[in-house]
User: What shape does this take?
Amino acid sequence: MKNKLIVSPSPHVHSGDTIAKNMYGVLIALVPAFLVSLYVFGVNALILTVASVLFCVITEYVIQRFMFKKEPTILDGSAIITGVLLAFNVPSNLPLWILAIGAVAAIGIGKMSFGGLGNNIFNPALLGRVFLLISFPAQMTSWPLPSTVSPIDGVTAATVLENIKYNPQALPSISDMFFGLESGSIGEMSVMALLLGLVYMLWKKIITWHIPISIIVTVAIFTALMYWGDPSPANNPIIHLFSGGLMLGAIFMATDYATSPLSNKGMIIYGVGIGVITVSIRLWGSYPEGVSFAILLMNAFTPLINNYVKPKRFGEVRKNG
Amino acid sequence: MLKTFRIGGIHPEENKFSAGKSIETIAIPSEVIVPLAQHIGAPCQAVVKRGEQVKVGTLLGKSVGFVSANIHSPVSGTVKKIDKALDASGYKRDAVFIDVVDDIWEESIDKTNSLNRDYDFTSKEIIDKIFAAGIVGMGGATFPTHVKLTPPPGTKAEVLIINGVECEPYLTADHTLMMEKTEEIFVGIQLLMKAVNVNRAVIGIENNKRDAIDKFRETAKFYPSIKIQPLKVQYPQGGEKQLIDAVLSRQVPSGALPISVGAVVQNVGTAFAVYEAVQKNKPLVERVVTVTGKDVTNHCNVLSRIGVPLRNLIEHAGGLPETTGKVVSGGPMMGKALASIDIPVTKGTSGILIIPTLEARRKQMKDCIKCGKCVNICPMGLNPTLLMTLTEYEVWDKAEKEKITDCIECGSCSYTCPSDRPLLDYIRLGKSKVMGIMRTRKD
Assistant: This one.
């Protein structure tokens, strides 16, 4: 041994947890949904997902290297997640150049303009998606029919939520919705695959249950109350839970570390807020789907929630056993 | 479901390599260095002079003030000098250097191993004997025991809680003592119960020490007022507030003492030291130390006199491994990294942990990703990442409102952080600043 001992304050051990471990864990959790999208939309899903990841990673690399003049941290996996989630949130026939604009908006405006990972206020992938939705409304809402339903390319169809609003007779069966055999964005349809991802992330302690469960429960209760008053398919809780971006949003988008509250109590308030806003937009808004807007709105409330909702302090609640 | 504390907590790798190793005695060297500050509170005042002859148990340093503890000679021989010596704090402080001659004990001390169950002392007599013997908290905190046994006026203890948790990874000193000195500990607990006038004691033991739980349960059959409470393995359960919550489901309020919920907490090692002090008239001159680490060849639990250089204990464990990067006094979560292994064993040396270079270096800190893991695991329900930011920007009034002074410095936040942020370093700094500000306000 050398003569000099290392001296530093405690603790002297570390859990070994890293940013990359959490990020790659999220990516593993996204694999089932990706496989379903390949099955449903074929090679288009693959091309869009890979392209989106490349656009996002390149944008992050360029900004970090040439504007921040720092060592790029693209290997931490966070830009890859943004890429995958952006692709999962667009129709499978979206032109690549539009996707590229979305990626630059997501990483450039949504993430790097705030200082990079951890400092952003809004979920980058969602910001990119909403940027595209407002800029290219036609391309962003034309949904190709799944190849499992129609083998002919280029046939488009309405999503479940659009049908609820405008054509309630044309709804797919509940089981098709559960497994993901419907039209919609690339990665959002399969409830089953997304729930698998949730179970994996809970098991690996990447996220806690508070955000996804509070969103899901809020949407279920809210729509159940509406269904009780008016039992039309537009209010059916099962359809609301199994359709649109609800599961993808609740499990993978709302749980983004940087843009969600820190304390468990705060997470539940945030989740309930997302649930209420989502259902309100779906039932009474001019858009058929409201998950993206709901999450972005609650992202904006996160600093406020963090400021007012504190974790449960030791000794504050004294129950004398 | 096993009981545990209700807020936060982590479960680091236990790595208790030296579990089950029986206590071995370390040979007395030719010279010992006995620091005069081995406890929390005022350092002792030396009462011996150069050239004076001392025996084992001769008073070397007299307690000054209420929060202080006597220090006795751990060896017999001649006082060589009183001089500054490096200790675990990293500072040079006053210490008594003694040249060892033979091993002669003060006549009043019963140095046999025979068990002495019977006693007839009043509460005050017990506390006086504990004070005289210089007993301090043996878990590592080294708070003078007689102070904790003297509740402030107007308070009343209801239950004595004995800490047999040993929640720090690697350490097994308490565990070994519990296996080898079981009944002595029980007598010590009875003495402590008498000292604080309670008729109920609960020993909390984590479930990774099944053998100790079984043995204690067996012994408790003969001590009906002492209960054994197995606990779920969770760090920092040995923290006083956490242990009370785990055992009694009562939470000590912010800024208050355990006595505010009727509890007095003592370590099993302290109970054993109390037994020796009261029943054997033996002052605190030796203790059990775990010597361990991933690359250590002979993990061991040793009985060492106070003042023996740590180097001797490490030699006993097979010497410093080639890979050594850091030597820690205590456990990996709260122990102190040492600048030298030539410092002496003191009353608070619960373990010597040798950490390989690879694990000893910290990784570079990254930006906070706001994952909230530190908030989730903080056993005091604080927001570590916020407290670090407030300290960085010196926002002391907000840090005080966010209860920075409640931090018990357990290190769970830094341990957990995926961005390798030195959360506790900052919080410690902020805590001491805020405490300083609060003190000036009082004056």
